[in-house]
Design brief:
The complex is a heterodimer of chains A (about 450) and B (about 250). Among the domains of chain A are: about 100 residues, no CATH class; about 45 residues, no CATH class. Chain A is built from 14 helices and 6 strands. A 3-stranded antiparallel β-sheet of chain A has the order 1-2-5, with no helix packed on it. Chain A has a 3-stranded antiparallel β-sheet with strand order 3-4-6, with no helix packed on it. The longest helix of chain A is centred in the C-terminal third of the chain and has 32 residues. Chain A is globular, with a radius of gyration of 29 Å. In chain A, about 25% of the residues are buried. Chain B is an alpha/beta fold and about 250 residues long. Chain B has a domain of about 55 residues. Helices cover about 35% and strands about 25% of the residues of chain B. Chain B has a 6-stranded mixed β-sheet with strand order 6-7-8-3-9-10, with helices on both faces. In chain B, strands 2-1-4-5 form a 4-stranded antiparallel β-sheet, covered by helices on one side. In chain B, β4 and β5 form a beta hairpin. The longest helix of chain B is centred in the last third of the chain and has 16 residues. The radius of gyration of chain B is 18 Å and the shape is globular. The termini of chain B are far apart. The chains are: A mainly alpha (about 450), B alpha/beta (about 250). At the A-B interface, α11 and α12 of A face α2, β6 and α3 of B. Bound molecules: adenosine-5'-triphosphate and magnesium ion. Adenosine-5'-triphosphate binds next to β2 and α1 of chain B.
Chain lengths: ~450, ~250
């Protein structure tokens, strides 16, 4: 019997009765072996499928939130001609290529009252004129490669507003994957989460290692750090304010910095502690807003005259930077805890064999620490996935934002937020199941 | 002896806060010599040993190993690779097999090819008498086997000096003999050894000289005959009578 202490175990324990194997009672519930999460999935699944089957709006909400790349894409201004055919003026950023789509006609209640098509169009590379969409009732050899035999549901919204088209990826799976990765909604959430997590991992490892560094090292050995730090402060001071004639001020700053450095013997430790404490002390929402609306716009404005040109990190990069530096601090603490959980003798044994500090870390300490670190890393990945919903405040069309967009169009808050919640739940439940598997693996030996 | 001593300790001091773990200790160790350090718990034996390969840095004085000052080394890793150390609690790497434990430093520090390192590892494991255990993880080995892997790991680096810090004191009685036999063989081969141990059988059989450390101070440094038959100080007498009772 396992003796780890995760909450799933306590459930198992409860359903199996007493801990003493000799006095184990006869199993009363015939399906007592069904795992707890299957019960949850069943119950949730029942309600979800019931409401979905009885309320068609869920399909609409989910397809909108998922923003599947094969679904809809605004083409441009359209006009319905008198005989029921139509033409459109493509949007300037529309990628050239062939498109196949239906047009649906909706009434006030958004019920489909008519459908035309399928249509094929080709957008040339510099298309700016009106394009006649041609119905493919008579197959045109030029468009034969486009598969339109599949049922396609794509439609336009109210007549005259927006043409929506269907992309056929059935013969180009790689293209589909690429488009999935690039699409909004669910996949923007996944993309931001994955990228942020990996950069947070790098930050966390770096600052975690700095935090386990010696706190009272021999100052002579760290003269390099002191000079580097002193020089960095000087350069910053020079960039931001001091005029050339204020050289004596620079000298003063240098003296102050060197004085401080004498008081702060361990620069890496101090720097990383500062980073961790500041970032953990700020709400993630504040960090995201700060990055999105303060730092990156200021950077863009300031960077105009730089050699590399304007640095525009607004939008998704800002969100990724915010989430990674925020989570880097949490991960740094996890790495620190993991490294410190390895007995001191391991480092000593490695060093006494002649390995240097980094070799000892790389070959001896980190491989052992990773077992301790893996489960909390997984939990932080889940937390990051949930926190990625915060980037909706800087107007990025991720999962939650798409949901809210859909709600603002349809005024159906329940269907909208239910769909958002279900999508988050599916991801987090699967992930926490994986974390539990990892936990079990690493606690076996 | 005309040769230069391989270890020369000159007025070494080391304190932890108010505790003087090593206080004004000076002695030399010659090539091929087996020096045993004895003394009461907290006497500073481990600390002195750890100062020799700079796991602890001395406060004052100097320690010169094979011509290089450990207090102020250019490249401590080179010096350390020449000094094998065996710890009381083995300190094997638990995520590696016995063989990998022995090959790791050979590859990383000595830059040996994996195949060469493995050959040497197999040789060393045979030499310490557990050649068949090469594929076991430390958790699958007994205490005595672990300590022998640790010795093999140190020996595979071709050290000039071996340091032992109470290598048998964490072992069950029936395991001790195997480890001591390995150490005796090593002493016979002419390895320079500094051993902290209270195993009187080993001390009698292998020690060239014995150092008695108390309160960080070197109280006595003589041959075993001299020490057992004619201890110089009262403190030494008292300590010897305590450990010889068993
Ligand atoms: N890292 C440390 N920090 C603080 N004090 C220490 C440290 N290492 C050793 N000491 C102290 O230094 C003194 C000498 O310790 P040391 O381990 O060298 O003794 P020892 O002779 O090896 O004892 P034992 O036979 O119990 O192993 C002891 O008083 C101990 O408490
Ligand atoms: Mg000791």
């Amino acid at each position: 019997m396992r003796n780890t202490t995760s909450d799933s175990e306590s459930d198992d324990m409860a359903s199996r009765g007493s801990q003493d194997p000799l006095s184990q009672p006869v199993r009363v519930i015939p399906w007592g072996d069904v795992p707890w999460w299957a019960v949850i999935v069943l119950i949730v699944g029942f309600f979800v499928s019931y409401s979905m089957l009885t309320n068609a709006k869920y399909i609409d909400a989910l397809t909108f939130i998922l923003d599947m790349p094969w679904h809809k894409k605004a083409l441009g201004d359209e006009a319905l001609s008198e005989n029921g055919d139509w033409s459109l003026r493509p949007m300037s950023d529309l990628e050239p290529g062939k498109y196949t789509f239906y047009v649906e006609f909706w009434d006030e209640e958004e019920q489909v009252v008519g459908r035309k098509g399928p249509y094929n169009i080709r957008i040339a590379s510099q298309a700016s004129d009106e394009i006649e969409a041609e119905p493919i009732t008579q197959p045109n050899p030029e468009y034969l490669e486009v598969d339109t035999s599949r049922p396609v549901f794509a439609g336009s919204s109210a007549v005259g507003e927006e043409a929506v088209l269907f992309n056929d990826f059935s013969k180009r799976p790689l293209r589909l994957l690429l488009n999935l990765w690039k699409s909004d909604g669910l996949f923007l959430t996944i993309r931001v989460t994955v990228i942020s997590f990996f950069s947070a991992l790098i930050l966390g490892l770096l600052f975690g290692l700095m935090r386990v560094a010696d706190r009272s090292p021999d100052l002579r050995e760290h003269i390099f750090w002191r000079l580097l730090f002193g020089a960095a402060v000087l350069i910053l001071a020079w960039i931001f304010s001091a005029l050339p004639q204020d050289l004596w001020k620079l000298g003063l700053i240098f003296v102050v910095v060197e004085g401080l450095m004498a008081l702060l013997p361990a620069v890496p430790y101090t720097l990383s502690t500062l980073y961790v404490e500041v970032m953990r002390g700020l709400p993630m929402l504040v960090i995201v807003l700060y990055m999105g609306f303060a730092v990156t716009p200021a950077l863009r404005d300031a960077s105009g005259g730089w050699i590399i040109g304007e640095v525009d990190l607004r939008g998704i990069p800002a969100a990724i930077i915010g989430l990674s530096i925020g989570y880097g601090a949490y991960l740094a603490e996890i790495f620190r805890g993991g490294i410190e959980s390895i007995p001191k003798g391991q480092m000593e044994a490695a060093r006494s064999l002649g390995m240097n500090y980094f070799q000892a870390m790389r070959y001896v300490i980190l491989p052992q620490a990773i077992r301790v670190i893996l489960p909390p890393l997984g939990n932080n990945f889940i937390a990051l996935l949930k926190d990625s919903s915060l980037i909706s405040v800087i107007a990025l069309p991720e999962l939650l934002q798409r949901g809210r967009l859909w709600i603002s169009r349809t005024f159906r808050a329940f269907e909208g937020y239910n769909s958002v919640a279900i999508l988050y739940l599916i991801m987090t439940l699967v992930l926490s199941f994986l974390v539990r598997v990892i936990e079990r693996r690493s606690s076996i030996d | 002896m005309t040769e230069e001593p391989i270890i020369r300790i000159k007025n070494a001091y080391k304190s932890f806060g108010r505790v003087e773990a090593v206080y004004d200790v000076s002695f030399d160790v010659q090539v091929g010599e087996v020096l045993v350090i004895i003394g009461p718990s907290g006497g500073g034996k481990s600390t002195l040993l750890r100062c020799i390969n700079r796991l602890e840095v001395i406060d004052k004085g100097d320690i010169i190993v094979d011509g290089v000052s450990v207090a102020n080394p250019k490249n401590i890793n080179q010096v350390r690779a020449e000094i094998g150390i065996v710890f009381q609690l083995f300190n094997l790497f638990p995520h590696l097999t016995a063989l990998e434990n022995i090959t790791l430093a050979q590859r990383v520090v000595r830059n040996r090819k994996p195949k060469e390192a493995e050959e040497i590892a197999h040789q060393q494991l045979k030499k310490v008498g557990i050649g068949e255990k090469w594929d076991s993880y430390p958790s699958q080995l007994s205490g005595g086997q672990k300590q022998r892997v640790a010795i093999a790991r140190a020996l595979a680096m071709d050290p000039k000096i071996m340091l032992f810090d109470e290598p048998t004191s964490a072992l069950d009685p029936e395991m001790i003999k195997g480890v001591l036999d390995v150490m005796l063989d090593l002493a016979e081969e002419g390895m320079t050894m500094v051993v902290v141990s209270h195993e009187m059988g080993f001390v009698r059989a292998a020690a060239d000289r014995i150092a008695f450390l108390d309160f960080g101070r070197l109280v006595e440094l003589t041959t075993p005959e001299e020490l057992f038959n004619n201890p110089g100080t009262e403190r030494t007498q008292e300590f010897l009578s305590q450990i010889l009772q068993h």
